[in-house]
């Protein structure tokens, strides 16, 4: 089956320029450095990573906001209308000087859809769809709470009936109590409208809840990708292990028993990424080979399982990472992340 | 955090039958401004000054004194000194026996005309240059920003003196000179604001929906520039008025016979010991006008609250 979205070896470098009149390029930020992925219609691909790993840049490349430096992004449809984006900051992403009716109608106006009356009807329909009072279309963004503003952003993204919605950390700016409402709204909308999501977040528990598959990014590369459950049960890349161990756990008993893999050092500069495996300066398992050879994304376990990791020495089941402390039973090295409901 | 149960109802704002049409930022700003006593008094003072300036010919007719006519018989004492305030000359006469009150009113016309027109010109020019520099960035911005730096570092008085010496004093020239030296400040502010807004997510959102650059510029950036531009323009008016008075005081402003506050003050230098009104009245008018515009500008700034556009 043809995927809805195919990203092939996409690179996005930002030039660093200096100079008074004529600006010379003095360096490049390797924000996205060779990412390939596929998204099938109707599924949700979660992309996680620390801030600065390039996940938001990747999202902007997919929506066409940034031209890619190299590589290709193929979308099965009209990318201008059928790929839309939901932004992170519900305060920054709505123009404070415009009424929300006009904000939500923006995509319709830009793409010359319908008459004024038809657009008004569509806006009210959308507001109802996302759980806003359709009577409030004449209000200004300042009159809404953060969660409501994010709903406005969602309504705007849905105006053109997109097939793919790229969600760039759609809940990370919201109060925890509101996050669940927005996440559930996104899930309901997906079921109702048959949407496909690329869902970007740094919160692993949120990604786990919404995603069918998860890709982990580090310094502009995907280091591991797998079906959600596989990734959480058996992370193979040391970075994924560290990320999972750092995730917050609701149960304090569990949290105390769990082994924390504390990464030393900072994320290296994307202007001059490390040689070989980009994670080697911080990896507890790093060997000389990791400094020289760049690992490729290779299948882990059964090849048809779709679990890929880019590591010369993937973490084996039961293996412990970077701990001189007392033996901890195998069960507790597994990530225990809060999860509502069954799968 | 439980992700499963949470009701969307909790987020609904309580229903209000009225006020479904929200008050716009402008409406709210106007309401805040009308509650600002200093700004309202300033607005009143400005209105009175404008009215007096408009009615200058009426007062000239009432007193029977034209702005440039000298009345040595009635305006000067037998010793040749200017008469003080009285029923004939309401604020006294100047050294040539001209009516100070009428001249101050005509001076207000010059001050307001120069202040408003040069500010208007500076604002138009500054907004265009600032927006182009901020929105297009790159080398366009590099060149324009350097030009602004050069303009801001010009010794304006020297340039004005040279220009007047070469081209001769006139009101249009003065307006152009003042506008030229104040547009850079406006352009800088607009450039900075444009760059700030260009980076905002709502511009990115508009672009992700396929909006063109000019569209995002006019639909999304311009409405956000109105507040800071209004504030700065209001504050540029008194600066321009003082600039005009300075040039006129130095004899570089309008034609010396034309009544202008700076010129009147300049005349008073030799006579203020015998006729202090010659110094005090134009100075007070200048002070009142600039103070009123400054306070009004501050009031507008507070009312528009350019920083706190959201959040509350």
Description:
The complex is a heterodimer of chains A (343) and B (312). Chain A is of the alpha/beta class and 343 residues long. Chain A has one domain: P-loop containing nucleotide triphosphate hydrolases (Rossmann fold, 3-Layer(aba) Sandwich). Chain A is 31% helix and 21% strand. Chain A has 12 helices and 11 strands. Chain A has an 8-stranded mixed β-sheet with strand order 5-6-7-3-8-9-11-10, with helices on both faces. Chain A has a 3-stranded antiparallel β-sheet with strand order 2-1-4. In chain A, β1 (5-18) and β2 (24-39) form a beta hairpin. In chain A, α3 (100-110) crosses α4, α3 (100-110) runs parallel beside α5 and α5 packs parallel to α6 (176-193). The longest helix of chain A is centred in the middle third of the chain and has 18 residues, at 176-193. Chain B is mainly α and 312 residues long. Chain B has a single domain, classed as MetI-like (MetI-like fold, Orthogonal Bundle), CATH 1.10.3720. Chain B is 68% helix and 0% strand. Chain B is built from 12 helices and no strands. Chain B has helices spanning 25-34, 37-54, 56-63, 72-75, 100-136, 138-152, 156-167, 171-198, 201-208, 213-249, 261-268, 277-304. In chain B, α1 crosses α12 (277-304). The longest helix of chain B is centred in the middle third of the chain and has 37 residues, at 100-136. Chain B is elongated, with a radius of gyration of 25 Å. Chain B starts with 24 loop residues before the first helix and ends in an 8-residue tail after the last helix. Mean pLDDT of chain B is 84; it is low at 1-19 and 308-312.
């Amino acid at each position: 089956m043809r995927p809805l979205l195919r990203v092939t070896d996409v690179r996005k470098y930002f030039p660093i320029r200096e100079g008074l009149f004529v600006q010379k390029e003095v360096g490049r930020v390797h924000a996205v450095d060779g990412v390939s992925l596929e998204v099938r219609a109707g599924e949700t691909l979660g992309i996680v990573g620390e801030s600065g790993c390039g996940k938001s840049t990747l999202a902007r490349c997919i929506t066409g906001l940034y031209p890619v430096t190299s590589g290709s992004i193929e979308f099965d449809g009209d990318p201008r209308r059928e790929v839309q984006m939901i932004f992170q900051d519900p305060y920054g992403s709505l123009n404070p000087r415009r009424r929300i009716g006009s904000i939500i109608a923006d995509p319709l106006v830009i793409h010359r859809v319908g008459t004024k009356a038809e657009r008004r009807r569509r806006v009210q329909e959308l507001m109802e769809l996302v759980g806003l009072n359709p009577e409030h279309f004449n209000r200004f963004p300042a009159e809404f709470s953060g969660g409501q503003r994010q709903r406005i952003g969602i309504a705007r993204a849905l105006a053109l009936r997109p097939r793919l919605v790229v969600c760039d950390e759609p809940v990370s700016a919201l109060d925890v109590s509101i996050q669940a409402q927005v996440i559930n709204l996104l899930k309901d909308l997906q079921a109702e409208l048959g949407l496909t999501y690329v869902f970007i977040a740094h919160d692993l528990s949120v990604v786990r809840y919404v995603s069918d598959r998860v890709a982990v990014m580090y310094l502009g590369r995907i280091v591991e990708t797998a079906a959600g459950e596989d990734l959480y049960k058996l992370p193979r890349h040391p970075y994924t292990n560290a990320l999972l161990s750092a995730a917050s756990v609701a149960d304090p008993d569990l949290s105390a028993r769990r082994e924390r893999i504390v990464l030393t050092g900072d994320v290296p500069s994307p202007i001059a990424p490390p040689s070989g495996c980009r994670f080697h300066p911080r990896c507890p398992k790093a060997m000389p080979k990791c400094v020289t050879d760049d690992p490729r994304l290779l299948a882990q376990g059964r090849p048809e399982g779709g679990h890929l990791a880019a590591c010369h020495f993937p973490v084996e089941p039961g293996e412990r990472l970077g701990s001189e402390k007392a033996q901890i039973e195998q069960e507790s090295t597994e990530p225990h992340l809060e999860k509502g409901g069954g799968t | 955090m439980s992700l499963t149960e949470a009701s969307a109802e909790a987020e609904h704002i309580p229903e209000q039958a009225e006020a479904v049409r929200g008050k716009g930022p402008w409406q709210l700003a106007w309401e805040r401004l009308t509650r600002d006593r200093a700004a309202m008094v300033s607005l009143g003072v400005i209105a009175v000054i404008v009215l007096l300036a408009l009615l200058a010919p009426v007062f000239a007719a009432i007193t029977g004194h034209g702005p440039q006519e000298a009345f040595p018989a009635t305006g000067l004492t037998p010793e040749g000194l200017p008469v003080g305030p009285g029923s004939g000359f309401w604020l006294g006469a100047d050294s040539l026996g001209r009516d100070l009150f009428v001249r101050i009113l005509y001076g207000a016309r010059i001050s307001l005309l120069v202040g408003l027109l040069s500010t208007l010109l500076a604002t138009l020019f500054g907004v265009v240059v600032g927006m182009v520099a901020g929105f297009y960035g790159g080398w366009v911005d590099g060149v324009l920003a350097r030009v602004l730096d050069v303009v801001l570092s010009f010794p304006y008085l020297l340039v004005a003196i040279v220009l007047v010496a070469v081209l001769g004093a006139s009101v249009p020239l003065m307006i152009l000179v003042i506008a030229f030296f104040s547009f850079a400040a406006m352009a800088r502010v607009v450039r900075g604001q444009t760059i700030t807004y260009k980076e905002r997510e709502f511009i990115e959102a508009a672009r992700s929906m396929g909006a063109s650059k000019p569209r995002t510029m006019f639909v999304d950036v311009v409405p956000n520039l109105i507040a800071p531009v209004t504030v700065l323009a209001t504050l540029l008016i008194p600066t321009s008025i003082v600039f005009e008075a300075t040039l006129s005081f130095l004899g570089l402003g309008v034609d010396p016979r034309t009544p202008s506050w700076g010129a009147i003050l300049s005349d008073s230098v030799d006579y203020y010991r015998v006729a202090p009104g010659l110094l005090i009245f134009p100075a007070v008018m200048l002070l009142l006008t600039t103070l009123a515009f400054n306070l009004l500008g501050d009031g507008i700034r507070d009312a528009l609250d350019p920083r706190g556009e959201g959040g509350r």
